[in-house]
Design goal:
This protein has about 525 residues and is mostly beta strands. It has helices at about 5-15, 20-45, 105-110, 200-205, 385-395, and strands at about 45-50, 60-65, 75, 90, 100, 120, 130-135, 155-160, 170-175, 180-185, 190, 195, 205-210, 230, 245-250, 255-260, 295-300, 310-315, 320-325, 330-340, 340-350, 355-365, 365-370, 375-380, 400-405, 410-420, 440, 445-450, 475-480, 480-490, 510. The radius of gyration is 27 Å and the shape is globular.
Length: about 525
């Protein structure tokens, strides 16, 4: 066997490769170009998102704005140059609902004698183009479509040819599969009369920020009569000033001390509302109460060995209470009223605590759980039938969110509330609404936009273009019209929406699409 040194000498002694002629270089370039063309056309086609129907998952033409009242940055849909870059006269922060009018629109409204209900007047904002994405085309090709794990799957974000013309591409989330019966009730999707739970990846994308303690508002919004905050329910309290980013509890000798999430200015005992508010929306539509919510925080016990931290949420007749003790004991209690009367179930486990721990309690799609540093404790699910969901929607109040502590010392950081997507039913909805499920055929799919209140999708389509077979039904997407699955955002907001100056891509928003 040659030594390392002799092998090196042999390699150095080998003759250098001959330099390619210009004809060979040209052929290599053409071959590489053809390879990229085939890759782009059949395997990884590229698209740019034009509108906001998939916000917050994907942005169309938009502008990014930082709320002057709480510091929360949010995206708002953009329309055309030469006027205020939104087709409503105001923008509204989704975290604190601070409402701002453009100076131009305010002047226009004053000239018409219309009232201006705003917290502030500002100038126009710079625009940004939509997200640019890779799309996996090959898993949806007829050659691979029947292979297990490939082909269209529920909750995929897909690109497809719009049924009206066959040339324009839309992007939505795939909800209904061939042969299924789809019904949208109280914001949830029922498939064949069963509530359809979202997988973890899709659910993570469909949690929308509602209020973050990292962005505490300086003052309530006069325009929207809204003031989100955590209010102590006893005085004196062991909790620190709730207007601070970090909430501390110094109550080693105190009994139970509770905080309540409230949104009414000046009233610390009225539970806060959770509704389907989108800061992105260009069109203002009625807001609905959202029953699915997540409460999370980073907790650190300050040398305490007793007591507990408690997160609690109440939804309709169900109450979910999670307790975490300094020794790692975690319990989840589910109390509710069923046909046989009040019921109560309790589960317990232990988790490893070494410094700060992330805790989250959530209720979504008829199930609830608490997770601490990745360890999950689930409550018993409860069956929500279509009839029960319709009844719930008619007489439901907003979820009630509480935090409590007793005989301990702790700090809460990055406390936040997220709400689930809420699929709306409006006057434009013509199918799959409560009491009128929609039956899909053998090659038909049903799609919805994540920005449900401002998405034109299967709920509302009424036309089919002449390029499709005559038996194609409005509201469906044919299998052969699906281009592929959205895979990765590779350039978010590179170019101004008015084709002005290029911007540095927001590298932090490059991500896989879920």
């Amino acid at each position: 066997m040659p030594s390392a040194r002799s092998a090196t000498k042999t390699a150095r002694a080998a003759p250098a490769a001959g330099r390619e002629t210009w004809q060979e270089q040209a052929a290599s370039f053409v071959g590489f170009f053809v390879f990229l063309l085939v890759l782009k056309t059949f395997f990884l086609p590229l698209f740019i998102i034009p509108t906001g129907s998939m916000a917050e998952t994907l942005y169309g033409q938009h502008t990014l704005h930082t709320c002057p009242n709480c510091g929360f940055e949010y995206a708002v849909g953009w329309i055309a140059p030469g006027r205020w870059p939104f087709n409503t006269p105001f923008i509204q922060c989704p975290n604190c609902r601070w409402r701002q009018y453009s100076a131009r629109e305010a002047q226009l409204l004053r000239s018409r004698g219309q009232p201006i209900v705003a917290d502030e007047i500002i100038e126009s904002l710079p625009s940004m183009a939509g997200d640019r994405i890779f799309v996996h085309g090959w898993p949806y090709d007829p050659l691979f479509r029947r292979v297990p794990g490939l082909g269209p799957r529920r909750w995929d974000v897909v690109v497809f040819r719009v049924p009206t013309d066959g040339d324009t591409n839309y992007i939505k989330r795939l909800i209904g599969l061939p042969g299924e019966k789809i019904e949208i009730i109280d914001g949830d999707v029922f498939v064949n009369d069963r509530l359809e739970a979202k997988p973890a990846g899709a659910q993570q994308s469909l949690w929308f920020p509602y209020f973050s303690q990292d962005y505490v508002p300086r003052r309530p919004s006069v325009a929207s009569q809204y003031h989100p905050r955590w209010e102590p329910q006893t005085q004196p309290t062991g909790w620190s000033d709730p207007a601070q980013r970090v909430l501390r509890f110094d109550g080693a000798d105190r009994t139970r001390d509770e905080l309540l999430f409230v949104t009414v200015p000046g009233n610390p005992r009225v539970p806060g509302e959770i509704i389907d508010l989108y800061g992105y929306n260009e069109l203002r539509k009625p807001d609905r109460i959202v029953p699915d919510v997540r409460l999370s925080a980073e907790v650190e016990f300050d040398g305490a060995v007793t007591g507990y931290l408690e997160l609690a949420l109440e939804v309709d007749r169900h109450a979910f209470t999670a307790r975490l003790a300094p020794d790692g004991r975690l319990t989840l209690q589910h109390s509710w009223t069923g046909p046989q009367g009040p019921r109560d179930e309790r589960r317990e486990t232990r988790v490893a605590l070494a410094g700060p721990a992330r805790i989250e309690l959530y209720h979504v799609d008829g199930r609830a759980a608490v997770a601490v540093n990745g360890a999950t404790l689930s409550a018993d699910g409860y069956e929500l039938t279509p009839d029960a969901a319709r009844a719930r929607a008619r007489g439901r109040s907003s979820p009630r969110l509480r935090i409590a502590a007793e005989q301990t010392r702790l700090a809460l950081r990055h406390l936040r509330i997220d709400r689930d997507v809420y699929y709306t039913i409006t006057s434009q909805t013509v199918r799959a609404y409560p009491g009128r499920p929609f039956q899909l055929g053998p090659q038909e799919y049903f799609v919805l936009g994540d920005n449900s209140a401002d998405s034109f999708d299967s709920r509302e389509w009424t036309e089919v273009g002449p390029h499709l077979p005559r038996d194609t039904r409005p509201g469906t997407v044919r299998a052969d019209q699906i281009v592929g699955r959205a895979a990765f955002v590779y350039l978010p907001g590179l170019l101004a929406a008015d084709h002005g100056q290029y911007r540095v891509p927001d590298v932090g928003r490059m991500r896989f699409v879920r």
